Amino acid sequence: MEFFDLIEARYSCKKYADKQVSKEELEMIFEAGRLAPTAKNSQEQRIYVVQSEEGLEKIDSLTPCRYGAKTVLIFACDVNGEYIYEGTNQTSGNEDISIVATHVMLAAKNIGVESCWINKFNPIKCAEIFDLPKNERVVLLMDLGYADKEGGKPLINHFKRKDITEYVIYK
Ligand SMILES: Cc1cc2nc3c(=O)[nH]c(=O)nc-3n(C[C@H](O)[C@H](O)[C@H](O)COP(=O)(O)O)c2cc1C
């Protein structure tokens, strides 16, 4: 897809069809994540792919936002790889992982796979129930799948964006 058509077409899907994303599609999607930039090129992202019944039940115990997706990604950050901003405690992990996740989201859309970014969950509880290593911080969850033909269309918020003049300030 042409770049602007792609970013216009991407939306948060909130009802998925009963169809799994294939391994080949996932590989293509993850390649886009692999090419994402990270601070100091530290590539501290970790992506856990949840597809088993047991794993999806755990996701459902964390959030109401799976919307029937048969694949959910857990994006985590290896805290040992984070860049620390000079003179502060501020770290780059959430930014790095968000860029990776954005690449993933757009690459998915490019091959017809819909997504929804989720932050309505407790990341500490998520790390616990999936038994993630102690050096990893969960940043976000992402549903992946095919849109349900009836209810999987963009919601009203997708069409509501501020005018550029409301947030671009020339100094
Ligand atoms: C950081 C972030 C967190 C979000 N968390 C949730 C969530 O927990 N549940 C949900 O249904 N949608 C979530 N969304 C989707 C937003 O509601 C959605 O992107 C926004 O309303 C614009 O709609 P669109 O993505 O269809 O263009 C999240 C999006 C972002 C970027």
Order of helices and strands: HHEHEHEHE
Helix/sheet category: alpha+beta
What is the rounded Rg? 17 Å
Low-confidence stretches: none
Quickly name the level 1 CATH class.
Alpha Beta
Please report which band the strand proportion falls in: under 5%, 5-15%, 15-25%, 25-35%, 35-45% or over 45%. Answer: 15-25%
Enumerate the strands of the largest sheet in spatial order, edge to edge or round the barrel: 1-2-4-3
| Terminal Cα span | 35 Å
Mean pLDDT: 98
User: Helix proportion of residues, in percent?
Assistant: 25-40%
CATH architecture: 3-Layer(aba) Sandwich
Total number of domains:
1
Q: How many extended strands?
A: 4
CATH topology: NADH Oxidase
**Which distinct ligands sit in these coordinates?**
flavin mononucleotide
The largest sheet, given as strand count, sense and whether it forms a barrel, is:
4 strands, antiparallel
- Work out the helix count: 5
- Fourth-tier CATH superfamily name: NADH Oxidase
Anisotropy-based shape: globular
Structural account:
With 171 residues, this protein is α+β, with helices and mostly antiparallel strands. It has one domain (3-166): NADH Oxidase (3-Layer(aba) Sandwich), CATH 3.40.109. It is 32% helix and 17% strand. It is built from five helices and four strands, in the order H-H-E-H-E-H-E-H-E. It has helices at residues 3-9, 23-34, 53-62, 93-110, 123-129, and strands spanning 45-50, 71-78, 114-118, 136-145. It has a four-stranded antiparallel sheet with strand order 1-2-4-3, with helices on both faces. Helix 2 (23-34) packs across helix 4. It is globular, with a radius of gyration of 17 Å. It starts with a helix and ends in a 26-residue tail after the last strand. The mean pLDDT is 98. Bound molecules: flavin mononucleotide. Flavin mononucleotide (FMN) is lined by residues 11-12, 14, 65, 116-120, 154, 157-158. Residues 11-12, 14, 65, 116-120, 154, 157-158 line the site of flavin mononucleotide.
